[in-house]
């Protein structure tokens, strides 16, 4: 570590310039030495105190960082100081104070785009969409070529159901920064939700920027392996058999994203067998038994793989959710033949016997229910999930045998003791999706939020009523109550953000129409 050059005692300005340059270069040890030197000469040097706060922030010492910034602001309030204090408060989870810091900075310099952008970003995170949209518009008035502001304003329009406005801002964000992969992914979602599949699929290839790893961190690279990528072109002519392999190329399909995504897109695997001598799918363990009994038993050339496969056995690869693009899927050509997933007959019979043995339920409609999704705490899960208390008026409907299908990583989402009086809950005995399918096989109806059980039931050809959030997932499109992906699925969509009461009222009325004794 080089020793900083000697400076005259009063030359704190040049020391500060050198410290700032070192900070921008990431030489934090040098910054610490220089800031300490400045403060030995001038204990109230605002710039050096700010640097001490930045160093504490970089080291994760958040309380110390806040102390340094509050001291700097006391000595000489400046917009940049409020912006750094905001960043510290944000990491501390003190959102109210973070918003107030940005507002104080803007009071000093109303034309600072960075503060408007950060304020809008925080308000968007807090769900205050109208104010957030105003903040992004103000950012763009000051800095029209702010790609991230265009992208985030597009996100707000999408969440408000204004897909055309959303697409306009996404496209502008991409024009300004072709490297804005988040905007490309968002444009894909808006185009897919609009049913414009042909244009959407290429943008959908950047979906990996929204994929989270198992520990919650974002994925850093697209899903890929060291094989040629298959994009729907005709495979090479059959090759000579080697090492006991059948003639013809073999395709390796990589799993990605959640169980619901796999359940929806696994329908493409048999289609791929029309082009390859064998198709291998890297299958999540909870889905393995279900796919073995539903798919592999019918298509022996479809094999399920665990973990990282031996690439020497495969010729091409394709991520699972790129198969719709490979097959040039349009709304009119969605492969929607049902059912393509099945329960094992002997397991279904075991559940049937248990259900029939329950007193006073034999002649009631059996309705499975899921009120919350997984990935607790994420923004999407907060929007799509209901509390069990909110579902209580529906469960109070008489002459229905309610059966819980609710599995969760969050114990707060599970049925409580009081709810068991209205629910049959055997979910602790459902060890994988094959078990769940066997129970589903005995139900007359499944009512579910947007989660994997809805996909499973729909893929089995069961009647599914999906409780759909306003401006929900792209796969449910907009402005319709059916799904081209699952002909037996019916959508009950919020008319406004957060309005589950309207949804549940319509579901209750539909129950009474479908099963005339309900509610009597």
Could you explain the architecture of this structure?
This protein is of the alpha/beta class. The strands form 2 sheets. The chain has a 6-stranded parallel β-sheet. The N terminus is likely disordered. The chain starts with 11 loop residues before the first helix and ends in a 6-residue tail after the last helix. Helix content is 46%, strand content 9%.
Question: Key terms for this structure?
Answer:
about 525 residues, six-stranded parallel beta sheet, about 10% strand, four-stranded parallel beta sheet, alpha/beta, disordered N terminus
Question: What's the arrangement of secondary structure elements?
Answer:
Blueprint: H1 12-24, H2 28-41, H3 46-58, H4 62-75, H5 79-91, H6 95-108, H7 113-125, H8 129-142, H9 147-159, H10 163-176, H11 181-193, H12 197-204, E1 250-254, H13 259-265, H14 268-272, E2 278-282, H15 285-296, E3 302-305, E4 316-319, H16 323-326, H17 345-356, E5 366-370, H18 379-384, H19 388-395, E6 401-404, E7 423-425, H20 433-440, E8 445-449, H21 452-459, E9 464-468, E10 489-493, H22 500-514
Parallel strand pairs: 1-2, 1-4, 2-3, 5-6, 5-8, 6-7, 8-9, 9-10
Helix pairs in contact: 1-2, 2-3, 3-4, 4-5, 5-6, 6-7, 7-8, 8-9, 9-10, 9-11, 10-11, 11-12, 13-21, 15-20, 17-20, 19-22
